[in-house]
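Case study 2.
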Amino acid sequence: MNPIKGSIVALVTPFHEDGSVNFEKLKELLDWHIAHGTDGILVLGTTGESSTMSHEEDDAVARLTIEHVAHRLPVIVGAGSNCTQTAIEKGVRYAEMGADALLMIAPYYNKANERGMIEHFRQVADVTSCPIVLYNVPGRTGCGISEHVVEQLSHHPNICGIKEASGSISFAARIARYVNEDFAMYSGNDDMITSMLSLGASGVISVLANVVPKETHDIVAAWHNGDVVTSREGQLKYLDLIEALFCEVNPIPVKAAMNLMGMGVGGYRYPLCEMMPNSHAHLKEVMEKYGLCK
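Prediction:
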């Protein structure tokens, strides 16, 4: 896969009031992103709440997304698991559906050693026809993908990049040494987009893009066009909004924000639930400051 340069939205999964997946709303969101400058779609990531969805629901969301987007944008599908065999099965299935790439999270809870971590990703990459983007988010998984593991996996012909969401610019700088035309890096933190671009990142896999897709695209596009000042200004302009979108655990605030915009993406599945009143009031205040409330 040629590296996607730009903003890849980590898309929410919309739910009906009864908690079932709202597939019609999902199609609306996909069309909205295509119309507003998003450069790629990620479904079934952390923001997509796949951790509370069944395998059958995951498959249905992936299939609808791939078919509805119909090659208008690249589609990345989250296929990770802490069970290597499950990750293999999901990866093969989504590749057969026509996904452009797979996002593979570090095997959470198990806390594998470096050999186990390398084998986990390698075994999936060896059997799927779909390029793999590693996903390093130790704050969620309880374990990180080490620099040595990144270096080893960056040479695999079917591993095309990493979503780096450790929040450490120092760690990002160390693994940036392995970025090349066959191995890309993406910021996994919306408050570090320009910082990561300065280290050679191709773009961002973004929660913020669910709310301001064009503006998130523009931050990355300006950088790649050589306009560092505009990129930096865009990053700094949206810091308060980014902070508000993470004032509670993702994706609780971003779905609340989208509902404040009148987008009707529904609620959550337990253990995720509605925001605390003080957090919601803060989010609404910030959204109003940016002129985003309906």
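The radius of gyration is 18 Å.
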